[in-house]
Write a structure and sequence with these properties.
The protein is α/β, with parallel strands linked by helices and about 220 residues long. It is about 60% helix and about 10% strand. The chain has seven helices and five strands, in the order βαβαβαβαβααα.
């Protein structure tokens, strides 16, 4: 059974959290509430999240401060953050959101369909990342099992080739997306593409490390965030 992704919703107003849950319930993932920046940081200590929806204006630790803490932690720095704000002070305010590490910055009231679609992209990326890591881990165990040829070696080689082909397909799609972004200069899309590129690079490095004769042995997988 495929485990559901977790989405962290951070807002000090219960009615806003309820609205977000209503919008994102159609994704059929696990929605986790946090009513403050401090509560969000505690949740991030124990659980892995596909994406964080973070309100900017909160009493105490605001969204910018919370994002800064998230990006300083090794465990959480690669989790995508979508800022949500009810105010708009112009380009400078938006730039501060991207500078704090956000992959997107959405002003309220927002289009529910657009928000759901944006979150869905990061959920899909997270799930594919998890699946590839699990398959790579199984392959690594087979390689470390000491097989010296025969059916096990053939099965491992076939699995590695399948993983590489799947990743190549995603890389091709990402390359096509980057070419489109070169023509549209949308800051949020560029940030999203950059995050995707980092993830794909890490996955490719992991698969390359599993190739027979690769330096450092078959068991060394880089962290995937």
């Amino acid at each position: 059974m495929v485990q559901k992704a977790k989405i962290l919703l951070v807002d000090d107003r219960p009615e806003n959290l309820l609205a977000l849950e209503a919008i994102l319930s159609a994704l059929d993932q696990t929605l986790v509430r946090a009513s403050s920046g401090e509560e969000a940081l505690k949740a991030l200590l124990t659980d892995d999240f596909a994406v964080i929806l973070l309100d900017v204006q909160m009493p105490g630790m605001d969204g910018f401060e919370t994002a800064a803490h998230i990006k300083r932690r090794e465990r959480t720095r690669d989790i995508p953050i979508i800022f949500l704000t009810a105010i708009n002070h112009g380009p400078h305010h938006t730039f501060r959101g991207y500078a704090a590490g956000a992959v997107d910055y959405i002003s309220k009231p927002f289009d529910p369909w657009v928000l759901r679609a944006k979150v869905s992209v990061f959920v899909d990326l997270y799930m594919k990342n998890c699946q590839l890591r699990e398959q790579a881990s199984l392959l690594r165990l087979q390689l470390e099992g000491g097989q010296s040829g025969g059916e096990d070696a053939k099965e491992s080689a076939g699995l590695l080739a399948e993983l590489s082909a799947r990743l190549a397909a995603v890389e091709e799609q990402a390359e096509a997306l980057s070419k489109q972004l070169d023509e549209s200069a949308d800051a949020a899309a560029v940030a999203t593409a950059a995050h995707l590129e980092r993830k794909l690079t890490g996955l490719r490095r992991a698969l390359d490390a599993l190739e027979p004769g690769a330096g450092g042995g078959a068991g060394q997988l880089p962290p995937q965030g």
